[in-house]
UniProtKB/TrEMBL annotation:
Family: Belongs to the flavin monoamine oxidase family.
Start and end residues of each stretch annotated as Disordered: 526-555
Any one GO molecular-function label of the UniProt entry: monoamine oxidase activity
Biased composition (Low complexity): 527-538
Protein name: monoamine oxidase
Regions annotated as coiled coil: none
Membrane topology value: Single-pass type IV membrane protein
Classification via Gene3D superfamilies: FAD/NAD(P)-binding domain (3.50.50.60)
Domain Amine oxidase: from-to ranges: 48-473
EC number: 1.4.3.4
Amino acid sequence: MIRWCLLILCVSAQQPSQQPVQQPPSASINSSNIQQSIYDVIVVGAGLTGLTAARNIQQSRPGLSVLVLEARGQVGGRVRYATMQTRNGVEFLDTGSQFISPTDTELLALIQQLNVRTNQQLTCGNNTVFQQTRRKRQLSLQQQWSTTLFSDLINSPELIGNLTNTSVAAMSQQMDTTDADSVNRLMQTFFDAPGEQVSEVQLALTCSSQNATAVEILRRFGHGQSLLAQGGMNEVVRRLADGLLIEYSQRVVSVNDAAFPAVVQTSTGRRFSARQVIVAVPIPTLENIDLVPTPEAPFQQLIQNYGPTGHAYYFTMSFQRATWRLNGRSGKVIYTSQSGPLVWLTTFDTTFASSCDNSTSASSSLWGIAHFSYDVPFETRKKLYIQAIMYSLRFADFSPLDCTDVNFATDDLAKGSIPTLRLNIPMESLKYLNDFHTLYQNVHIATADISSNSLGTMNGAVHSGSAVSNYVLQMLSAADAQRNELLRDTPVESTTPYVYSTSSHYPPAMFAAEIPAQVQNQTRIQNSPLTPSNSTSSGTFQYETSSQYPSTVQPPTTTTMKHFSFGNLDNSTNNEEPAAVLYDSPPQQAQPTLNYSTTFAYSTSSVMPPVVPIETTTIRHFSNGNLNETSTAQSPAVQRDNPSILINQQQNGYVYSTSTHYPIQLSSNRNINARATPSPEIVQQLQEVSESATNFTSLQLASSLTQLVQSLLTTLRLQ
């Protein structure tokens, strides 16, 4: 019993404990511990353009490996958001781009695919920010630009050639008050750029890509006709990123398109390789990336002369309830001050609600833009925001639940909001405003900044991402098709000749060293169903089934069996072994020595065995060849049609004579064995034909030979 207890204790000590082992936490799809040597596609930048491109590629071809590298800790790019305290608790609220134009068809289609609702921006209360004049005026340049195709505009020097040297501020001075006000407000709220530093061509390209004038653009983006997404644009980009492989905090410092696959390196020293690379970052930030090979000069000039120029702060405030609606205000405020530091401010109501009646139950928020004459800390900025709004709305108590702001100009990963073309930009640089630009071969730069549709906006970002992803998919499909064609359809060339023989039973290669050339040729002609006529070799085309019958050097087995096909049926006493007969070759027939006087010998020894000589007869009959004999001796009757008695038959041979039809002539004056000699004339004619044969055609040669043969036969018959 003690032994069993000790044994159980020993076994228990050796077994592992049954306590649950903690498994390492599962790696999320966007964690940095996922490694792969070469990706199919790498997307640099998790903004709206990059996420759209990555999603399109992954949905179109799920088997492709797609990696997104993002320098920040969140997706969205210039769609910026932050966690804020609201009446419903802590929520994500947009601090960056959020207004959706009703004409942004591609962006709205994407939002619908992501199952995100949209509602029109609320305009509850009086709208005192902007009013369009009702007086008639002549067709302005903005209307002309808005009705011109974007591609026609950038390729028409006569339309925009003089616009690159003129600033928007100088242009607005020549407009009426309403147009000038709309243009200036567009510069403030849409571009965040002073008109003195922006080329007039920027306004022309914006109106053309939006198919709208400055007034219409303002109305579509925050001034009454805008749409808002439920949960904000942050909800859209976060859903767009679901299922994508994203590595955060990976700031790209170099992209090498001269190598294949392309190489992407980050600031942390990590290197990634991919067949195709999409660089989806703002144009101004390309200065932070070492592009190899170096872009052409016009594109470099675009990078240097295309960037944001403003320094505005974008702020968001959340409220317990929308108190401005209680006072009949829309929430749109314009504030200006000469003293500073806050010199200009404007706000918009960004509360998501289906109507003004039920907006009181939703989380209320205001989003605005502010300009300061000098830098101040955040707490000071927050205080100035509240004071300016309270003064404008005449509120005695205006206390938001939370407030936050962001400055894109000081962000090195954005360098501003929407970039603008500076003065004196070369016309050659405008040709790159074509949705995306391929650096060399496998690296493509795509961003809303160069989109031909909705230039600089979120819809332009979706348009650019869709265009570049479709192009990348075409490139990958073409490369895969080429690789599959090389693997499947292209014949493999080899310097080793392949010998193929139709001698399916007896490969001729095994007798090549022993068979004379003439016998080999006869063998191949008899056994090969295909005899090539265009062979350039001196011998016959060798057709070997080497895969079934490999060649061998062993000679075939010889035999001493006597058979007529071997030609050894004669009575020779030679004890030497007959020559080896090769299978699959013509029989080597030895002509038997015949001493009989007949001219026809038919040997069927394999069928008819040899017989003893038959008895002779004296019956007179032409078939016996004795019709002219004078002997009167009687002889017994014999079988008819037997061979003649004059035939000296071979003892072991069978002789068959067709004497019934062709009686044997035994005339004494005819020597059957005499050799017929052609006349000298025939010989001379034959020599002439032989000498002239090279100059004859086939028909002439045949005719000459026919005449010669006829003359020869006539001569022999006379003899």
